[in-house]
Structure formats: C-alpha cells, structure tokens
Amino acid sequence: MKHIRILIFFTISILFYNSSSNAQCLDFAKSKGFAKLDTAKYVPEGRLNSIPLSEGDNMDVYKSFFRGRKYKIVVVGAENMPKIYFKVTNFQRQVLYDNKEHSNAEFWEFVSDQNQNLIISIEVPAAASGQPKTGCVAVIVGFQADF
Amino acid sequence: MKTKTNLILRTYFLLSFVLLILASISSCKGTDKNDDNINSDSSSEVNIQKEILYSMPAPSDIALVLIDSPNIKFHDDILNPVENSDKYITNKSIALNLGIYTADLSYASFFEQDQISLNYLRVSKKLAEDLGISNSVEERHLQMLSKTKLNKKAMMTLINETFMNTDAYLLENGRKDVMSMILVGGWVEAQYIATTLTNGSPTTNSELTQKIIEQQSAVQLMNLMFENVNETGDLKEIKEDVSKIREAYIKFNKGVTDENFKQFCDLIKKLRTKYVS
C-alpha cells in the first residue's frame, strides 16, 4: 500500500512539472498579451503562440491573414526578458514591418490587402554577459470585428 | 516473486526520480519577479535555438472568415448533430470532430443561436475531456453563456479562449498530431458550411465563392504543418485528404468553372461525411 502511494506521488509530480512551464505561458499570453491587444477593439484569434524562450533564441510563426481584415500583432515578453525584436515578412522574406524601426514597438496594426501567409520572426537579443535569462514570449494576433 | 516485484518497484522509483529531476530542470519554473519569468540557472551552457510554429487558423477563425459574408443565413441542419458525439471513441475521430464542433459553434454563435451555441460548447468540452484536456472549456465559460446574453464579439473571444486552452495543453504535451487533426476537421467543416450555402454553384453567392477560393493560403499552411509532424497511421490518411484538397485548389488556378467548383464541393462533402460518421 505504501509503495502504491509513493508510486502515485511520483507519477503526479512528473505530470505536474511537465505541464507547469507551458501553462504559465498560457496565463501570460492571456494576461499581458490580451491587455496589449485591447480585447475591447480586437478579437483574439484562437491559436496560442506562447512558449518559453531564452536570450539569444529565435522563433518563426507562420500565419494566415485574410483579405480586408484589420489585424493587430502583439509580441510581448516576460518582465525579466529584454526588449523583444520582431519583424513580419512574406514567404519571399521581404520585410513588411520591423519593430526595430519603430522604437521596438510591441505591436503592429495593419489591414491585409489579400489572403496571404506571413512569417512573424521573433528575436530575443542575446545576453551581453552572464547567464541567459528564460521567460515566456507570446505572439497574440487579433482582428477587428465589424459585427 | 516478492523479490521480483520489489525490484520492479525500485527500478520504477529510480526512473521516476530521474525523470522528475529532468522535468523540473526542463520546465525551469522560476520565482524571479513574477511567474512568467523562467529561471535558467540550472544550465551553464548557452543553447541557442530556433522555434518554428505553423499557426494554421483555428476552426472558429476559419468559419468566421467564411460566414461573415452578405446574404448568409443560419441553417441548423448543416451542423453535425451533438448526439453524434457518443459514437466518437478513437483519438482520431474525437480530434477531427472537436474541430468540426468548434467550427459549428462559431457558425451558431455568429448568428446568435444561444441555446445551440451552449449545446455545442458543452459537446466541445466533452470531446476535449475525452482527449484528456480538462481545462479547455472552463465552467465559468458555460456559466457565462447560460446566464448572460453575450454579443458576437464577446462570444468569439470566449470560443477562441477555450481553443487556446486546448492548443496550450496539446503543445505542452507534445501532441501536435492531435492538434493537426482538430485543425483539419475544423477547416473541412468550415468549408462544408460555406460550400453547402453555395448549393455547389460558384454563382449563388459570388463573395462567398471568392472567400472559399482564397482559402488556398490556409491550405498551403496546412501542407507545411503536415510536413512537420510525425506521420502515424491516423495522420497518414488525413495527410492524403489534405493532398486531395490541395490538388482541387490547383485546378482553380486556371479559373473557377461550374465543373471544378462542383468537384471541390463534392470532395469537401465526401471528406466531411467520412469524418462525422
């Protein structure tokens, strides 16, 4: 009986630890990401693009955008993280937006003039020295609903 | 016999302990400043990585893009009846139909069919739980919908928030294959709703037809997604379905005709019938 209790304890512990970091990023995306998106104006899309990244890491999010819709792309990092760089390119890697040219802005609003797939490229600047920090980075995309 | 059992248990404990340590290092749950920060002091190596996420639209988003067109009406007979949910017992059928019900939910909600929406939210919760996802549709979501009249925007936010919960769970548990099936099911259902409303003719509602044709970009992303998931038996068959959809879209490149549009509608109907049965 004692063995079974210990066995259950270990199994639950493993499951808990495995799910903790990403559940954290879900909460982060919903709190900070939704606030920046301004859900009174924009409806958040249903896909979650929020994962832990370390300083020096990169992430590409491939996403469809539809004709005639006004979008807001929000890119935010946890408090301990440096300013996140992001740019939006098409599949030919032509740059449509680069937040480095806009004072490292955390969002970009635009109207998609066609149905298209774009790549949102995230760059977490490398640490100048010491241990690279790790934290949640969320890409939240919302659209302005006319209804 | 007893010695053998003890040996197995000891081995299990040892493995569990090692896994627990590894899991705690990999998840690196930090306490620095706030919970979103993740402490990485456990590793001294700088391990730069590049993550790639193929973020094909959620079923609710695809359905909304298509039905938010002029002259579209609500027809409840198009939906996959909630009663069908009891017959989905394999991971594949549950995942496909979770996507299908999510697209149906979006369609019903857009037309403010509150009771139908509540029923479809409940069935989505049931199927998500069947996949082991306990927090997809939270009790507060059901309470909110049953007690309050939500406007369309609030309703769409609620649906997408529940889908994000599903997405997060599957991502963290390495079940991209299941998410791929949900997304394909949802995409096919959204197309099924749209093509049914065109009665199989490209001229019935030209704006809706245009939106259906423009879904080619989402199909391109769907292909990319399938190139990057492990191909199990279930996924192999769905990947073949996706290839057929892609081929149907290629025919539109030479122009949309009554014939190729009808063929496309028939293909979608065939796939949808296969998924819901």
Secondary structure topology:
The complex is a heterodimer of chains A (147) and B (277).
Chain A: H1 2-37, E1 42-44, E2 49-54, E3 58-65, E4 70-77, E5 85-90, E6 95-98, E7 107-111, E8 116-123, E9 134-144
Antiparallel strand pairs in A: 1-9, 2-9, 3-8, 4-7, 4-9, 5-6, 5-8
Chain B: H1 2-27, E1 37-38, E2 50-55, H2 59-67, H3 91-110, H4 114-130, H5 139-147, H6 152-172, H7 176-197, H8 206-213, H9 216-227, H10 233-252, H11 258-276
Give your account of this protein's structure:
With 147 residues, chain A is of the alpha+beta class. Chain A has one domain: Sandwich (Jelly Rolls). Helices cover 24% and strands 40% of the residues of chain A. In chain A, strands 1, 2, 4, 7 and 9 form a five-stranded antiparallel beta sheet that branches. A four-stranded antiparallel beta sheet of chain A has the order 3-8-5-6, with no helix packed on it. In chain A, a hairpin with a 4-residue loop joins strand 5 and strand 6. About 5% of the residues of chain A have low confidence. Chain B has one domain. The termini of chain B are far apart. Classes of the chains: A alpha+beta (147), B mainly alpha (277). The interface between A and B is large, with 66 and 68 residues. Strand 3 of chain A pairs parallel with strand 2 of chain B, so a sheet runs across the interface.
